Amino acid sequence: MAITIDSDSAHTQEISAAAVARLRSVLVGEVITPRDDGYEQHRRVWNGSIDRHPALIARCADVDDVRAALRFGRDHRLPVAVRGGGHSFPGLSTGDGALVIDLRRMNRVRVDPDARVAGAQAGLLLGELDAATQDYGLAVPAGIVSHTGLAGLTLGGGIGWIQRKFGLTADSLLSADVVTADGEFVRASEDENPDLFWGLRGGGGNFGVVTDFRFRLHPLGPQVMAGATFWPMDQAAAVLRHHRDWIADCPDELMTLVVQRLAPPLPVVPAELVGRPVVAVAACFAGDVQEGERVLRPMRDFGSPVLDLFGSKPFLAHQQMFDPSFRHGCWYYVRSCDVAELSDDVIDIVVEHGRRISSPLSSIALWQMGGAVGRVGEDETAFNGRSAGFTFNINGNTATADGFDEQRQWARDYWSALAPFHTGVYVNFLMEEGEARVRQAYGAAKYERLRALKRTYDPANTFRLNQNIPPD
Ligand SMILES: Cc1cc2nc3c(=O)[nH]c(=O)nc-3n(C[C@H](O)[C@H](O)[C@H](O)COP(=O)(O)OP(=O)(O)OC[C@H]3O[C@@H](n4cnc5c(N)ncnc54)[C@H](O)[C@@H]3O)c2cc1C
Question: Considering the entire predicted model, what is its pTM?
């Protein structure tokens, strides 16, 4: 029996059962079609609002599997989606009628503590990499939710708790192994294919399927001073102003996130606080714990907090602090922008729109940038936004479809109010917002350089289910 797919509006075709069987026979991993048990489970991505039906899911186990799957996609003219952790906000790692190259089975880590280098296969989640490296008191700077995929995050740049001390995830990248659209295996590093290496550090999944990364490791913890202090939302103006002054000349070890939300129903949150609007300053101090205590004290002591969760804790635990707030399968919508500074005008907008949060899952995170991120030259990597002061991540979220439109509108309104202060946007925090926004994320000059690179490595735009940089 054949599988009929409609991979795009102009092109309907059938994949024969024999062709699927042939692919199965060459793959070490699995092939999952809509007829197979497990299709429902494996077609799903983290964002529950994305409901797409790929034609095939190739759960690759090694590089040869990736090459075979890509060949199959080309022979059957299927759109190709590449999936690491499946956390693309707009669900770009799946597609109706697409071939999904799912790398989740490729999740081995190799840590060389003497050389301070980690090898990481592209299907790893951040928490898996952290667990392996923290065994040696080492870390790769990465994101703040442990179930996020390493591959998509690294290829867009990678911002997180220790970025101001150690830079972006991409800044610690030493090399990447890539299968290109024509099935060629190439390594990219400062010495081999440096043009591709430049593009992979921020240019997303535009140039090929990364199968393996090598990262430089940094000493960290395993104990760090970290956590969050909460105040009632009606103190947000004063808290934000104090935060702005407090971080004005803070050390690189400190990274903060200002959060607005309804206090979540977690064991650490007193019952009487749950559901009340709060503003929080969350932070991690990537250095000596006593020094962290001293640096954090003036913020924790400010005003009349309703909850203080700071303390010395394993970095691994801190990396999971936000995990319960971003569960798989809920409905997520994000708007994002960078701003240069927390001016009084910006703070006024934050205060006004924070008050309107009405979903227990909606929130904003205001990321403190700078430090080591800003000291890498703007042209050294494809990542754009080295000079950003702060990055807004405005999440209009719900548990199900119920109420989602309203939350999405809240996020849009918040973002629009900030429009006079937008300086750019982090590509990994985009929804599907069109080519102009992708261009804006990279800036005109970098976008053109990425386009030229795309013409070299993927002239047919095989990899277009991403924040796409079309070759022409
Ligand atoms: C809950 C949550 C928390 C987040 N926190 C952070 C954070 O702290 N810091 C941060 O910087 N970002 C963060 N992000 C954004 C995150 O960086 C992106 O969503 C990223 O795409 C996730 O990577 P993934 O592998 O899980 O995504 P996937 O959905 O699997 O992939 C996203 C895209 O990446 C590309 N891709 C994935 N794997 C490969 C590969 N092996 N080779 C080539 N291309 C590939 C593809 O183009 C794909 O469309 C977060 C996202 C979520 C949902």
Answer: 0.97
